[in-house]
Write a structure and sequence with these properties.
This protein has one domain: Rossmann fold, CATH 3.40.50. It is an alpha/beta fold and about 350 residues long. Helix content is about 50%, strand content about 10%. Helix 2 packs across helix 13 and helix 9 packs parallel to helix 11.
């Protein structure tokens, strides 16, 4: 009797959830699911079980997350992935696809494939021993088959066509692969390297589209030269913004934005939007008090000048005053500002 009971209970719960999904797609909610790809800016824990130094499933990371537990998020609390699902009323946080506690219903409301340390350049992920964008696409294909098996092909197609997809990567390509790897600097100038990155981004977006994605937000690269770590390494004794890093970021962002426009014109049902991750963050860094912060040239972790990941042994006591959590990543309060700005400006993408 017990297996029969469990089978019927599961069938009932699945039917109930599919009805809820139908309501979310046709009723008050405009987004039934959020699906994220990228790097540490949006990773919510996929790196936890990888053999890589690019993981943060230990304190003090996550000190302001629910329960104060480190989850693999590269911040003191939530990251953009979480704020997207929270602000859109989908769920409270976005779980990693490779998380050990992933539930069936999580598949239907969205998951996260991002892997900290990755990038558009295949060499970036290879050097960091993390999941490449190609690998993330393969996991996404696996996800689609699971949803089809669980809920049926029609439900899977509905999720894909109405979900909000987010892609956020590129920073590691600039800081770790181009400027710190002599092979890339020798073979590529700024123009050719940004061309390589945009080609990779375009290929990824077209793959997503061919798999059924329609509504896609793509983050540009932030003012990477103004991150605390780059100020320390390349900003001289005054720790000024490293201009060459910012120049490369701006060139890439301009090309990426144009490529997104091209894809929208040539893919009939695509609704892709470029997300500014440069000028708004730059304004936050240059005018922190305007956004409720006091400190924007160092992070809360350690000295704030160079520490990230396992180098973060202690933190400040007033994290709410900081734009940066460590020398590379924003605090959850700063991330929330970026997500709110995108959603306020791009609701037409979601309707």
């Amino acid at each position: 009797m017990q297996p029969f009971f469990l089978h019927n209970l599961f069938s009932f719960l699945l039917l109930l959830f599919l009805l809820l999904l139908h309501f979310r797609c046709n009723g008050s909610s405009i987004v039934p699911a959020v699906i994220v790809f990228g790097d540490s800016v949006v990773d919510t824990g996929n790196n936890n079980n990888l053999q890589t130094i690019f993981k943060v499933n230990y304190p003090p990371y996550g000190q302001d997350f629910s329960g104060g537990q480190p989850t693999g998020r590269f911040s003191n609390g939530k990251v953009p992935s979480d704020f997207f699902v929270e602000e859109l009323g989908v769920k409270e946080v976005l779980p990693p696809y490779l998380g050990p506690n992933l539930h069936i219903e999580d598949l239907l409301t969205g998951v996260n494939f991002a892997s900290g340390g990755g990038g558009y350049d295949p060499l970036t992920s290879e050097l960091a021993s993390v999941i490449s964008l190609e690998g993330q696409i393969e996991l996404f294909k696996e996800y689609i088959e699971k949803v089809k098996t669980m809920a049926g092909e029609d439900a899977a197609n509905t999720i894909l066509s109405k979900a909000l997809f987010i892609l956020a990567t590129g920073s590691n390509d600039v800081t770790n692969t181009y400027f710190k790897n002599p092979l890339r600097k020798y073979h590529y100038d700024f123009d050719s390297y940004t061309g390589l990155l945009v080609d990779s981004a375009s290929s990824f977006l077209q793959n997503l589209y061919n798999l059924g994605a329609r509504r896609i937000g793509i983050f540009g690269v932030p003012p990477i030269g103004c991150l605390p770590s780059q100020r320390t390494l390349e900003g001289g004794t005054l720790r000024e913004c490293a201009q060459k890093y910012n120049e490369l970021a701006v060139l890439f962002n301009n090309k990426l934005s144009m490529e997104i426009n091209y894809l929208n014109l040539n893919l009939p049902f695509a609704r892709m939007v470029y997300i500014d991750a440069y000028y708004l963050p730059l304004d936050i860094i240059q005018n922190p008090t305007k956004y409720g912060f006091d400190i924007s040239n160092i992070g809360c972790c350690g000295t704030g000048t160079i520490e990230v990941a396992f180098l973060c042994k202690f933190t400040c006591t007033n994290v709410s005053e900081y734009v940066f959590w460590d020398s590379f990543h924003f605090t959850q309060n700063a991330y929330k500002i970026l997500v709110d700005d995108f959603l306020n400006k791009n609701m037409n993408l979601l309707t």
